[in-house]
């Protein structure tokens, strides 16, 4: 089974990478960019039947730093 | 409008970060992990009505290195 984990910085946490991308888009002439946030996309190919709690444990123990990051799990059974 | 861009390494391109995560998950005792790929999540807050071609141009010119990465745009009008 394919599972997608999205890891984002929590609101209020400074995102220098996002600011750099925002600035660069404006420098390239793109208008109307109001905000940019950069996070991680982690695609897991897991044994069928892996339960949501196991995936959540993977996120909490390794994939996300829950002090400053939040995560969402998509595509789990 | 909120747009989400997912940037992934193309199939066949070595993903050392994904391998490291895979190895670490096994080291933590998680079983049944078959593959892990790590990419980037870029969340854009754009002016309403920004068209798909503009967002595609942002990806091709800045957000993704299309030599080794592919991108998908989600949530665009």
From TrEMBL, chains A, B:
<dbReference type="GO" id="GO:0004642">
    <property type="term" value="F:phosphoribosylformylglycinamidine synthase activity"/>
</dbReference>
<dbReference type="InterPro" id="IPR003850">
    <property type="entry name" value="PurS"/>
</dbReference>
<dbReference type="GO" id="GO:0005737">
    <property type="term" value="C:cytoplasm"/>
</dbReference>
<keyword id="KW-0547">Nucleotide-binding</keyword>
<protein>
    <recommendedName>
        <fullName>Phosphoribosylformylglycinamidine synthase subunit PurS</fullName>
        <ecNumber>6.3.5.3</ecNumber>
    </recommendedName>
</protein>
<comment type="pathway">
    <text>Purine metabolism; IMP biosynthesis via de novo pathway; 5-amino-1-(5-phospho-D-ribosyl)imidazole from N(2)-formyl-N(1)-(5-phospho-D-ribosyl)glycinamide: step 1/2.</text>
</comment>
<comment type="function">
    <text>Part of the phosphoribosylformylglycinamidine synthase complex involved in the purines biosynthetic pathway. Catalyzes the ATP-dependent conversion of formylglycinamide ribonucleotide (FGAR) and glutamine to yield formylglycinamidine ribonucleotide (FGAM) and glutamate. The FGAM synthase complex is composed of three subunits. PurQ produces an ammonia molecule by converting glutamine to glutamate. PurL transfers the ammonia molecule to FGAR to form FGAM in an ATP-dependent manner.</text>
</comment>
<dbReference type="GO" id="GO:0006189">
    <property type="term" value="P:'de novo' IMP biosynthetic process"/>
</dbReference>
<keyword id="KW-0963">Cytoplasm</keyword>
<dbReference type="Pfam" id="PF02700">
    <property type="entry name" value="PurS"/>
</dbReference>
<keyword id="KW-0436">Ligase</keyword>
<dbReference type="GO" id="GO:0005524">
    <property type="term" value="F:ATP binding"/>
</dbReference>
<comment type="subunit">
    <text>Part of the FGAM synthase complex composed of 1 PurL, 1 PurQ and 2 PurS subunits.</text>
</comment>
<keyword id="KW-0658">Purine biosynthesis</keyword>
<dbReference type="InterPro" id="IPR036604">
    <property type="entry name" value="PurS-like_sf"/>
</dbReference>
<comment type="similarity">
    <text>Belongs to the PurS family.</text>
</comment>
<keyword id="KW-0067">ATP-binding</keyword>
